Amino acid sequence: MKQQSTRSLLLGAAFLMATSAIGPGFLTQTTHFTEQLAASFGFVILISIIIDIGAQLNIWRIIAISEKPAQDIANSLLPGLGVLLSLLIVAGGLAFNIGNIAGAGLGTNVLFGISPEMGALFSGIVAVAVFLVREAGKVMDRFAQTAGFIMIALTIFVMFSAQPPVGEAVAKTVAPDTIDFLAIITLVGGTVGGYITFAGGHRLLDAGVKGKESLGQVTKSSVSAIGIASIMRIFLFLAALGVVSSGVSLDPSNPPASVFQAAAGNIGYKIFGIIMWAAAVTSVVGAAYTSVSFIRTFSKTIDRYHKWFIVGFIVISTAVFVTIGRPVKVLILVGSLNGLILPIALGVMLIAAYKTKIVGDYKHPLWLTIFGAIIVVAMAYMGGVSLIEGIPQLFK
Fold first, then answer.
1. DSSP labels, 12-49
2. Which of 63, 190, 211, 212 has its CA 20 to 30 A from that of 382?
3. CA–CA distance, 189 with 215 (Å, rounded to integer)
4. Mean pLDDT, to the nearest integer, of 291-300?
């Protein structure tokens, strides 16, 4: 029974991270870049998966071995660094949660014809309900798993309906016509950027899966999480490629909806509604849980009543969208800041991996350190460029 319970926990953490990544932005990015790059987008996906695995393996292992959440690890290295990291995570999580709530409203609009605001309100209530039950952790895990399976199954159906040129996709994945570095950075940021990579790592820590004896399980769960998100990405890419290859132009205001509609007619459009809603609500749950996990250790009150802080986080996100709408300019700036969170967090983790006061006698694999360092430099450069380009948008 205990083994089954641990397996369920590991799978739950993997799905929490994966479904946190698979949000409205994930769906839009994938279809947008497929239209731009066609079959060569397969290469972008392949490279981003390799980077995602490198980042996630490092972060989850070091959280597990130190038996501390990321903010406490950062504070152990330099007092105040954990507070800075937490501020970045919470600000990014809140801003993008407003976007996730908006995506949930769009999904219900497609399914039932109700206004996005009413749909967002309903979706916020569903997300809050997940945390109000007695065993919220287990319910969250099960909710993420169920939604994840539904999204992947429906996307596979639409992919087959689209009849993509699979042979060409495989060939261009290995030998692309063009390499788009911005697309790679965007995909990495959308999969392991901001709060996302910590969702599963903190969930495992919360559930007691930690220490040297758990490293094998943590490694397996972290790679599984990237695998689940990547499977969804690949099937969505193939569905979009099938539609684009047939000569259909995607609607720039809602690229993923036009892919599903072109591939499977009105049924496909309704399937898009289900996937958009499931993707958005699971991202709302993941963002709220992970953001609050970054401030729990700063106050005994927050730790004791963390479920209510999570509920408050969701309520605020929903209220902002329903009353004001999505604050686009704030999202632009926070989106740029979000690009800097991964290199800061991963850089902190790599340094922490060599501090005995944090990891004891644990020896971090050299290849993982080198892999992680390359990711830090690449993501810091692109995150800086993104921030410089994003700030002027605030004053237009």
1. HHHHHHHHHHSSHHHHHHHHHHHHHHGGGHHHHHHHHH
2. 63
3. 25
4. 92
Q: What pLDDT, in 10s, does the model give residues 376-387?
A: 998 888 767 766
Share in percent of the chain as helix, strand, coil (round to 5)? 85, 0, 15
Write out pLDDT tens, residues 4-50: 577 788 888 899 898 888 888 888 888 989 999 999 999 999 999 99
Burial class, 282, CB count within 10 angstroms (exposed 0-12 / middle 13-18 / buried 19+): buried
Pull the structure tokens for residue 260. Answer: 């599903």
DSSP category for residue 248 = P
* Position with higher pLDDT, 347 vs 187: 347
- Residues with Cβ within 8 Å of residue 267, at least 6 apart in sequence: none
What is the torsion angle, in degrees rounded to the nearest 10, for the CA atoms of residue 91, residue 272, residue 240 and residue 232? 60
Type and span of the H or E element at 389? helix 366-390
Cβ–Cβ < 8 Å for 238, 244: no
Q: What is the DSSP letter of 213?
A: G
Backbone angles phi, psi at 179, to 5 degrees: -115, 120
Spatial distance between the Cα atoms of 233 and 25, rounded to a whole number of angstroms: 12
DSSP per residue, 76-99: HHSTTHHHHHHHHHHHHHHHHHHH
Residue from 294, 379, 376 nearest 336 by CA = 379
**Sequence-ordered list of residues with C-beta below 8 angstroms from that of 225, at least 6 positions apart, any chain:** 13, 14, 15, 17, 18, 56, 200
Strands (E), the chain: none
> How far is 390 from 367, CA to CA, in rounded Å?
34
Burial class (CB in 10 A: 0-12, 13-18, 19+), 219: middle
At 179, the amino acid letter reads I
Structure tokens at 368: 């993982």
CA 233 – CA 230 distance, rounded (Å): 5
Which range marks the domain in which residue 105 is found? 2-395
For residue 361, the domain's CATH number is 1.20.1740.10
Sign of CA dihedral 226, 228, 233, 235: positive
Total structural domains in the chain? 1
